[in-house]
TrEMBL record:
Keywords: Cell cycle, Cell division, Mitosis, Ubl conjugation pathway. It comes from Dryoscopus gambensis. The keyword Cell division applies. One of its GO terms (cellular component) is anaphase-promoting complex. This is APC4 protein. Pfam families: WD40_APC4_C-half. Residues 136-222 form the Anaphase-promoting complex subunit 4 C-terminal half WD40 domain. GO terms for biological process: anaphase-promoting complex-dependent catabolic process; cell division; protein K11-linked ubiquitination. It comes from the Eukaryota. The gene is Anapc4.
Amino acid sequence: MTQKDITFVADFLTEHFNEAPELYNRKGKYFNVERVGQYLKDEDDDLVSPPNTEGNQWFNFLKDSTHLKESPLLFPYYPEKSLHFVKRQMEGVIDQCLQKPADVIGKSVHQAACMSLYKISQSEDSTPQLFKLPFLWNDKTSNLHYVLFTMLENSISKIHILRRHTDTSSLLYYLILSELFSCRCYSCLDAHFYDDETVTVVLTESVQQEGKERVLAQLPLS
């Protein structure tokens, strides 16, 4: 420790843990509470040493503003409470704001189509991962919705693209199987849409050897 560190600790102890004879008749500690730790206690009790807001520019600004003083858009300030108390208050307000949109959106979402990709035996204890999570893309110019995914195991050299019209009244959908390489020298690590007409893929050599080559390629959707 440097002399500066020692001086800092000594000043801290002198300021916050000095004896206070006027508090001897009270219950509890006979020194001042550390001013930072009180904000982190998960309690609803008032702070022992609340902050001094005198001269604070923001509070003075609100006090002098007729319109902002009672504005419902400003989150209320609790100078006597800890951060845990304020956090719970804010979470309650946010939950209340999001509840109505969540109900409306939830009732408007419904399943448009369902397609079985594969079946597995229910008796197996450990289910192998055969399906990689999809990447979604919405082509607004053509009103088409794409789902791009890869199947592991026996079809790692293929990219699966599910294309569907955004018109929910139409139940037609098209599945495109794109063979990357017929020789199966490469397998697909990942694939995303780059734009409405281009797909970006990350390939790796299928040969079991050290230093496998990685290839970043952009393929036209056509």
